[in-house]
Write a structure and sequence with these properties.
The protein has one domain: Ubiquitin-like (UB roll). It is built from 3 helices and 3 strands. The protein has helices at residues 46-57, 74-79, 81-84, and strands spanning 10-21, 24-36, 42-43. The longest helix is centred in the middle third of the chain and has 12 residues, at 46-57. The chain is flat, with a radius of gyration of 17 Å.
Length: 89
């Protein structure tokens, strides 16, 4: 199987997945994924994503809690016009 973006080889690995569900961010560990060994793009099977949604929606054990910063990138682009040249805004 080859990556859709760089044509690199995809390999099966366990990974961490950032997963949004009902407006809340979850970090799910040990998720099966195909990962490109060239660019790192991750591919998750739809059944895996459905299982994650069901797990979150039901009672589940929580390994840890963490705080996450939310930062707006747009003001940064305006202040640094050289970066804006590479980003379609």
């Amino acid at each position: 199987m080859f990556c859709e973006f760089c044509n690199g080889q995809k390999i099966t690995k366990k990974t961490k997945k950032q997963h949004w569900f009902k407006g809340q961010l979850y970090i799910i560990e040990n998720v099966d994924a195909l990962i490109c060994n060239e660019c790192g793009e991750r591919y998750y099977h739809a059944t895996v994503l459905d299982k994650i949604d069901k797990m979150i929606n039901n009672k589940h054990d929580v390994k840890a809690y963490m705080n996450v910063e939310v930062i707006d990138f747009f003001p940064f682009i305006n202040k640094n016009s050289q970066i804006g040249a590479y980003v379609n805004v």
